[in-house]
Amino acid sequence: MGKKVLVADDEKVIRKFLKIHLDKWGYKVKEAGDGVEVLEQLCNEDFDFILLDIRMPKKDGWQVLEEMRSNPKTKNIPVIVLTAKNEDSDMFRGYDLGANYYMTKPFTKAQLFYGIQLIFGEDSDSLPVTSRE
Question: In terms of residue numbers, what domain contains 39?
Fold first, then answer.
């Protein structure tokens, strides 16, 4: 079975784009539309990694990341931040809070692919898809 990912973004179109490609690449995808939902799903299920937006209702991605890193159950789950926040200070904050990789919107599926590859330290031969797909 493929790795299980939680896609956390308040924009349905972004979640749909991510789900289509992640499904195609062999990942099992769950979705969350706000920060509270992210934390609830993390309490109930185990995930191999999370794609986390910053601008979300109820709790933003910064709050989610802080809570994840302070919880023994979730502190080691890899997190790729996917956000429109593109200032250097935002990126540094993401890494300071424990993000494993930081990508700004808009992004391509090749960038997403390589971000996932980076956090798992895998070469392209061991991943389910090539960057050209």
Answer: 4-126
The three-point CA angle 13-37-127 to 5° equals: 60
Whole-angstrom CA distances from 107 to 74, 103, 110 are 26, 7, 8
Q: How far apart are CA 25 and CA 75, in angstroms?
A: 26
Give the dihedral sign, CA 22/116/1/71.
negative
CATH of the domain at 29: 3.40.50.2300
H or E element: which one contains 8?
strand 4-8
Q: What is the pLDDT along the chain (133 residues), one digit of tens a residue?
A: 579 999 999 999 999 999 999 999 889 999 999 999 999 999 999 999 999 999 999 999 999 999 999 999 999 999 999 988 888 998 999 999 999 999 998 888 888 888 998 888 865 444 444 444 4
Neighbours of 100 (CB within 10 A): 17
Q: Is residue 108 in a domain? A: yes
